[in-house]
Structure formats: structure tokens, C-alpha cells
Design a protein that fits this description.
disordered N terminus, five-stranded antiparallel β-sheet, globular
């Protein structure tokens, strides 16, 4: 999925961090919106002072986590399927 978002990633042409899927923040947001219909649902500040942003589809079928640096560059750090919010912290066995 990541190589499909950033075709240059396979060739190592990924912006400031070789081998990562990086681009300017606005370009990543646009690509996630247009290609996967994902939008921002959460944001936080990491200990390294970068933003960690979570994008997902309305139904949570796909999600992407992006690290955004202060200089405007952003890198996809993870992506997957089945994003859920608000699940119980208890194990399924304890809910019976």
C-alpha cells in the first residue's frame, strides 16, 4: 500500500529520509484523501517534538499514521486496516 501511495519510495526517492515514504505534509494529506478517502481523526506531539497524525476512512476500513516534522516534511510510519475507536479496555472474556 505504501509503495502505491509514493511510487518513488521503491527507488529511494522519498524526501529527507531515504527508504521512508516521505513528502510535504500537504501532499500526503491530499494523496490520502484522494486515493483512500482518509481524513485526520487524531493528532499528538511525540517526545521528539514532531506531530503524530492518524488518518482513517469513515468506516475505519483503512488507516495511516504520519509523522510530521516542524519543517513541513511528513513520513508515513504505518498503515493498515480495521481502525476502531472507543473499544472497551477490558478483555472479551471479562465482558461476559
Amino acid at each position: 500500500m505504501l509503495a502505491a501511495l509514493w511510487p518513488g519510495a521503491a527507488a529511494g526517492q522519498t524526501g529527507p529520509r531515504p527508504g521512508r515514504n516521505c513528502d510535504l505534509h500537504d501532499a500526503i494529506v491530499e494523496r490520502l484523501s484522494e486515493k483512500y478517502d482518509e481524513y485526520q481523526v487524531a493528532v499528538g506531539v511525540s517526545l521528539a517534538h514532531s506531530l503524530i497524525v492518524v488518518f482513517t476512512t469513515e468506516d475505519g476500513s483503512t488507516w495511516t499514521i504520519v509523522e510530521v516534522r516542524p519543517d513541513g516534511w511528513a513520513c508515513v510510519v504505518s498503515a493498515g486496516e480495521w481502525w476502531r475507536v472507543g473499544l472497551s479496555h477490558e478483555s472479551p472474556a471479562s465482558e461476559t
